[in-house]
Amino acid sequence: MDNPASGGIVRAMKPDHDILIVGGGLNGPALALALARGGLSVGVIDSLPIDTRSDPGFDGRAYALALASQRLLGAIGLWPRIAAEAQPMREIKVTDGRAGEGASPWMLHFDHAEIEEGPMGYMVEDRHLRGAFLAMMADAPRITQYAAETVTSQQADALGARIGLASGRALSAWLLVGCDGRRSGTAERAGIRRTGWGYGQTGVVCAVEHEKPHGGIAHQFFMPAGPLAILPLKGNRSSIVWSETDARAAELLAMPDADFLTALRPAFGSFLGEIGLAGARFGYPLGLTLADSFIAERLALVGDAAHGMHPIAGQGLNAGLRDVAALAQVLAEARGRGEDIGSTQVLRRYQQWRRFDTATLAAATDSVNRLFSNDNKTVRTLRDLGLGLVNRVPALRRGLMREAAGLTGDLPELMR
Amino acid sequence: MQTTVDPAEIAKFEAMAAEWWDLDGKFKPLHMLNPCRLDYITRQIAAEFGRDLKAEAPFAGLRILDIGCGGGLLSEPMARLGADVVGADAAERNIPVARIHAAQAGLAIDYRHTTAEALAEAGERFDVVLNMEVVEHVSDPLAYLTACRTLLKPGGLHLCSTINRNPKSFAMAIVGAEFVMRWLPRGTHDWRKFITPDELFDLLRAAGLDPVDRKGFQFNPVLWSWRISDSDLSVNYVTASLAPV
Q1: A–B: how many Cβ contacts below 8 A?
Q2: Taking CA atoms, what residue in A is nearest to B109?
Q3: Across the interface, do B2 and A344 touch by the CB < 8 Å criterion?
Q4: Nearest-CA distance from A344 to chain B in Å?
Q5: Which of A111, A174, A231, A303 would you label with B95, given CA atoms 20 to 30 Å apart?
Q6: Which domains does chain A have, with CATH numbers?
Q7: CATH (domain of B79)
Q8: Which tens digits make up the pLDDT trace of B56-75?
Q9: Which residues in chain A are closer than 8 Å to B100, comparing Cβ atoms?
């Protein structure tokens, strides 16, 4: 027989899962649920035990979910579980403020009444999102969770991707997805380099309760040191993201509650009446990182592992969920065609779709932050005029709102 | 098992397999067109045989013949969808190349150096015959299509794509693809052998098949990608026809 291959017919080998996802934060579970819904089997690996991740005090952040992100969560069946805890964001007011001077008269005002799709987004607390994701993954028949497991090795070739875990367990799949954050070990093991820089700023995050209702209005004050965002939560509560220099942030995080409130009041203002703390304070160092490539052999990067951006305007999670929706669509289409879902040809479609988009967004949020973290008088006057200009041109304002709602660009099907 | 192939030959075939599957290599135009072809093929098969493409191994139990299989660009996806696949190519050197790649991908595919006519004569029968970008290369299209019909089980599905014959297809497929872009070796296509959709429908009927669908594969030079078009069959197009029950 003139057959150089080993026998005319070879036996197909099936890996443990179609896809392995490293990282069980928010993007990882969202991707797992979207893929499982499309008929793929998924393993989700996270270094922390499930109990730790489901603890309500684990992460104090709240997210401004863009409308497109909310649609994705709806499509994967998660939204009904958190809808009651989500605060619609009806208006966004952007002010160039300086502590002690009051707000600049030039203010940007976005009102959802100007776009037809409804509210611009929803404020959702991390604890609710995380809890719902963990519960849904536990119920999903095609999802296996590997909790309290650390990846120690990873290889990829024509036959698939294989990883070794600290417990000694080995797992294989057609494709490995890194959802393991801005210090992604998955990317590092694949030799993907990153470019990025810190801002020397830390985001101080906490929930505050206030006397007066917020009316679903989100506020962003651009202060000399960095922006302060006041984002409406359910009830008379708001989540604040106060970006300060690293040194100042360390002080703010360490001081007693009463001193912190004293420091916060001048920046926060009195428009919501008396304020108090409604939870612990958390600090998140700000920085921008962009992976040189979002893909490698049998590997795709999603969310912060691909692009950690300045959390201005809450675009971090939204950009991650956009990766999720795009990758899920690319993979579902490839699977329906019988293509190898981990092949370079398939992964390139994801990279082409997402990389330009996120590089643009990262550059935009970076320059906005640099512009607004400046106390130079000329820059201040110019940006005040810029804001006023946007505010008086309805078409421009509507465009920015649709952008903030995540409704622009080539939208994945799960977000339509 | 006895083999008369020496290691140097195997190394050559491995290099050729890598060439067939190199996205940016000599078969780049085929890789670019492939997702679009696969969309048409998988949807037609799923519709004809009532299969759900989201299910596990949706084509399980279907016997599919891929004529002119080359490196296996269509055979492999069909096998991955669960079909029992025979890949046939008249060019002998393609067979070991396709086998090596399938083995690397862990797929079971029966590759054979043979022709449609020989398979028909041997009494082989299939649920689906994939006849993609072949008919414009054969000397007697009617005899060839008749062999394709003979290869089908009653009610079987025949998918046939080719290139239209008109000034635009001459400009795109010969001048553009062969001379300007150098996508294809000069002389790959003989424009006089191109067939219009109406001529192909007549040939299919004459071969005893019932043509049921035709669509265009349209190239977008801005997005640099292909899509299925209901109306633009001016250059590349595809047809579906059924064997009598």
Answers
A1: 84
A2: A9
A3: no
A4: 8
A5: A174
A6: 17-415 (3.50.50.60)
A7: 3.40.50.150
A8: 899 999 999 999 999 999 99
A9: 4-5
